[in-house]
């Protein structure tokens, strides 16, 4: 059996950059030199081969680890350090759980670097986000439903990563805290609404990996301050 290279297990902080959004060379330089553990390339819409290759080659000028979250088969680009394949666990449409992924595997299965490829069990908690609308996801509300989804991801499916996704809004840290307590083997990713060092530190108390997206585009200085905040918080 092939060994997984689980480089993401070392990541406390990552920036997520969207190939469909513009970023200046200066801003990209600041992100790549920030001390973050990784840059993840991914987005919910408008991501294609060309804009993914373009962003990858710009990031590749730096030493920072660079991963691709493959959410569209058109954007499967070779040359990244690691690949994530999202499975949306709280979607109402099987298409987003295994349908699109299986279709992509028909095409690319033989070429996938499996040892650098990891499934992520997504739980989308922000019903107003583009990701929720696109995938027809509804946030589980009560504690029992949330725990059931975590059991599904961590114990039954034994997914290596569970991603609590609040994309666009800062989430309920009590949910993140409880998720961390339920998980036995999965790495916990948290992303959503982190635009200050303080929010980053709060998320870092419970999540193994804190992911910052929009703030890079909306308030770069604040986004950069999250790197140290996360690294300091995880030393406590
Ligand atoms: C999005 O989880 C990431 O997939 C980050 O969320 O853009 O709200 O920071 P934000």
Automatic annotation (TrEMBL):
Mg(2+) binds at residues 18, 44. It comes from the Bacteria. InterPro entries: GGGP/HepGP_synthase_I, GGGP/HepGP_synthase_sf, GGGP_HepGP_synthase. Belongs to the GGGP/HepGP synthase family. Group I subfamily. Sn-glycerol 1-phosphate binds at residues 16, 163-168, 193, 213-214. It comes from Paenibacillus solisilvae. Its EC number is 2.5.1.n9. One of its GO terms (molecular function) is transferase activity. The keyword Lipid biosynthesis applies. This is Heptaprenylglyceryl phosphate synthase. Keywords: Lipid biosynthesis, Lipid metabolism, Magnesium, Metal-binding, Phospholipid biosynthesis, Phospholipid metabolism, Transferase. Prenyltransferase that catalyzes in vivo the transfer of the heptaprenyl moiety of heptaprenyl pyrophosphate (HepPP; 35 carbon atoms) to the C3 hydroxyl of sn-glycerol-1-phosphate (G1P), producing heptaprenylglyceryl phosphate (HepGP). This reaction is an ether-bond-formation step in the biosynthesis of archaea-type G1P-based membrane lipids found in Bacillales. Pathway: Membrane lipid metabolism; glycerophospholipid metabolism. Homodimer. The lineage of its organism: Bacteria, Bacillati, Bacillota, Bacilli, Bacillales. Its cofactor is Mg(2+). It catalyses: sn-glycerol 1-phosphate + all-trans-heptaprenyl diphosphate = 3-heptaprenyl-sn-glycero-1-phosphate + diphosphate. The gene is pcrB. NCBIfam families: GGGP-family (TIGR01768), PRK04169.1-1 (NF003197), PRK04169.1-3 (NF003199).
